Amino acid sequence: MDMEKLLTGVLPALVTPLDEEGNVKAELAGAFVNLYLQQKADGLYMLGWTGEGAHLPVEKRKIWAEAVLAEGRDKLPVFVHVGYNENLDDSVELAAHAEQCGAYAVASVGISEKATLEDNVAYFKRIAKAAPNTPFYIYWVASGKTLTGGRPVNPDELLIAMEAVPTFRGIKFTDNNFYILERFKKYRPDLNILTGADELAICSQIMGADGNIGALQAVTCYHHKLIFWKILEGDYKAAKELQYRANEVAEVYNRAEVGNLPGIKLILDRVYQVPVGICSLDGPFAGHKIPKQAAEHLIDVFRKNIVTAPL
């Protein structure tokens, strides 16, 4: 894997399809890869928040990662999130497994809200050792406070600390403070920054992001690719209109009666014909059912606003 390459474009955050018993529907890996190739994805990001990695045991995470990586080989670069584990040995095991199966990159959130920057760097070094030939990406949230035990961290301070992690190549930047993003790019122009502020993709790209990863992109991949292209062309008016239309969908699925992840799974099922099943039985949306009227409204808003590549 070329660790110097800057990956650009749109990377949908992949859901994990589950049957009624909570088993991974690994047979859908090919359908997902084909869907996102059709929708012009530049890669996939799996087992993060959207993939419910925090609410799946290690073996189920391995099953889904192995299936997607097998289907995506030589077709799409796939990021595997390996964090969220109380037992850090699990993260190390998942990183080694991801490299063995051909992941483009591995990523992780920080250990916990109480862990210091030194704790997290030591943890990231363990991941790098387990997957020495695979780029590592920090999952950045909350102005980086999850990496420092709650204190603010300056971009240059973090970059100096991360020099100890030999495979560190980028950041999954889920934050809306794009000043920090711009500072990261100032100090490390070679750093691959992919943003997770789905409803602000236009802003993050203008401020220097190389691309975007997100839950919204799981159902608006081609639409977000159009935004990406329009910004490159300098057609900011068209990009802004497309962003506003994508945000219509986000507004509806973020309502409590819908829920963003159940809403995303509904769209994948109803619009894209991928039977993704339920949300994790251990996650925040366990047992959640979208009322019929709310479901129909979401689908209607989606169809009126989102541009998809022909199915």
Q: Helix segment count? A: 11
Strand order of the largest sheet: 1-2-3-4-5-6-7-8
Helix proportion range: 40-55%
Indicate the structural class: alpha/beta
| Oligomeric state of the chains present here | single chain
- What's the story with the biggest beta sheet? 8 strands, parallel, barrel
What does the overall shape look like? globular
- Terminal-residue CA separation: 31 Å
**SSE sequence, one letter per element:** EHEHEHEHEHEHEHEHHHH
Overall number of strands:
8
Into which percentage range does the β-strand content fall? 5-15%
Radius of gyration: 18 Å
Low-confidence stretches: none
Mean pLDDT: 96
Can you describe what's shown?
The chain is an alpha/beta fold. The chain is 43% helix and 12% strand. The chain has helices spanning 29-38, 58-72, 88-100, 117-130, 155-161, 178-187, 201-206, 217-233, 236-253, 260-270, 292-305; strands at 9-14, 44-46, 78-81, 105-108, 136-141, 168-174, 192-195, 211-214. Strands 1-2-3-4-5-6-7-8 form an eight-stranded parallel beta barrel, surrounded by four helices. The radius of gyration is 18 Å and the shape is globular. The two termini are 31 Å apart. The mean pLDDT is 96.
